[in-house]
Amino acid sequence: MFHKILIANRGEIALRVLRAAKELGIQTVAVHSTADADAMHVRLADESVCIGPPASRDSYLNIHQILAACEITGADAVHPGYGFLSENAKFSEILDAHNLTFIGPRAEHIRVMGDKIEAKRTAKRLGIPVVPGSEGAVTDDVEAKRIAAEIGYPVLVKASAGGGGRGMKVAKTEADLSDALANARNEAGAAFGDDAVYIEKYLAKPRHIEVQIMGDGKGNAIHLGERDCSLQRRHQKVWEEANSPALNVEQRMKIGEICSRAVADLGYSGAGTIEFLYEDGEFYFIEMNTRLQVEHPVTEAITGIDLVHEQIRVASGGGLSVTQDEVRFQGHAIECRINAEDARTFVPSPGVITHFHTPGGLGVRVDSGVYSGYKIPPYYDSLIGKLIVHGRNRVECMMRLRRALDEFVVDGINSTLPLFRDLVGNVDVANGDYDIHWLENYLANKD
Ligand code: ADP
């Protein structure tokens, strides 16, 4: 087992990783920018190192500084959290070259899944269902028209290097296709320095359903069921739940087994998420994230398995603590991502939180790095906390969520708490009757 883990992240996820390390009796090192000197993960860590000024590229993305912090403190492993360096294959290789362990998958797997065309090709080879579309990049318009006619309009032009919904254009008919291709290429070239694009069928009303997997790097893997993350705003997840209200047990086990077999064949190590669009009973792979995800606690709630413990175990060569047969899915869990934003306009609201009170009681978990008097710096994402509620079934979970939201107090800044109070009382949400466009439509038609 590791002696000391350096946590290369900030905010709630840094605290989340720190808690897991402490439980395993491992020393912790926090790194932080000058803007985060007062952060909770810095206070609670055994040691801390300031790694630079506020801008992420000079601190949380600064590989040299993080290496130096490992050297100074004698850390033997690095947990990257999510975002920042978590899907940076080069970072994992550099750590390797310095005899430090990257708590995550091997560099080659990060690299393959970071390129959407390669990821899709690999998924298909491993028996995962994918969205019908071009085999690889499309380079000329004639070929594109032939492929689009074959799969049927509307089609979506997507950037191979895409992320955050950028470099994506819909073509409703053949007349739109040339423009969609040119626009997607331009956007992708400007944003990612890579203008490779591909074509796939545009699904009209899918749900976003993703499968959590864990591999031991030695050819064994398990799945921990799915999460439904269809409630999104601008392709950002807002509300996540496990299990998906749309799946039954057979569907769950079937897609779960496809995913666990695929990552076992790949020799994948650590936590990963295989994301699908789901429409009319069919799953369509869109991408794989080779890291811990923001919404992982809903999976922890229904399985009782600590995903960060498992990540640390696997990275240290200890293997998984459970077999597939031992995984039990119990009850229902929902997570609300509470942001420091206006609940109506979504304008960020940095500043001092004058009063912060979190709900408690059975089945209620709050993962947050903030506290009363904490000043939210303007430099990073706007997540202030995640409320995760568990119940024996979805109805109980929703009742508990409503109660927990009522108890939650965030004063001094704007937060998205009012949005969740609205959603928990909405009939479609209560029925689990929504797709990836539902929240945008709801927000557009509110008032
Ligand atoms: P990114 O990495 O940019 O987030 P993804 O491939 O994960 O890109 O897709 C982001 C979102 O775009 C999905 O959650 C979904 O809302 C939408 N999307 C992606 N592919 C399709 C498709 N083939 N049909 C319809 N919507 C899609």
TrEMBL record:
Pathway: Lipid metabolism; malonyl-CoA biosynthesis; malonyl-CoA from acetyl-CoA: step 1/1. Its EC number is 6.3.4.14. It catalyses: N(6)-biotinyl-L-lysyl-[protein] + hydrogencarbonate + ATP = N(6)-carboxybiotinyl-L-lysyl-[protein] + ADP + phosphate + H(+). It comes from the Bacteria. One of its GO terms (molecular function) is transferase activity. Residues 120-316 form the ATP-grasp domain. Keywords: ATP-binding, Biotin, Fatty acid biosynthesis, Fatty acid metabolism, Ligase, Lipid biosynthesis, Lipid metabolism, Magnesium, Metal-binding, Nucleotide-binding, Transferase. Transmembrane segments: none annotated. GO terms for biological process: fatty acid biosynthetic process; malonyl-CoA biosynthetic process. Gene3D superfamilies: ATP-grasp fold, B domain (3.30.470.20). SUPFAM superfamilies: Glutathione synthetase ATP-binding domain-like, PreATP-grasp domain, Rudiment single hybrid motif. It is an enzyme of class 6 (ligase). Residues 1-444 form the Biotin carboxylation domain. NCBIfam families: accC, PRK08591.1. This protein is a component of the acetyl coenzyme A carboxylase complex; first, biotin carboxylase catalyzes the carboxylation of the carrier protein and then the transcarboxylase transfers the carboxyl group to form malonyl-CoA. Acetyl-CoA carboxylase is a heterohexamer of biotin carboxyl carrier protein, biotin carboxylase and the two subunits of carboxyl transferase in a 2:2 complex. This is Biotin carboxylase. It comes from Nitratireductor basaltis.
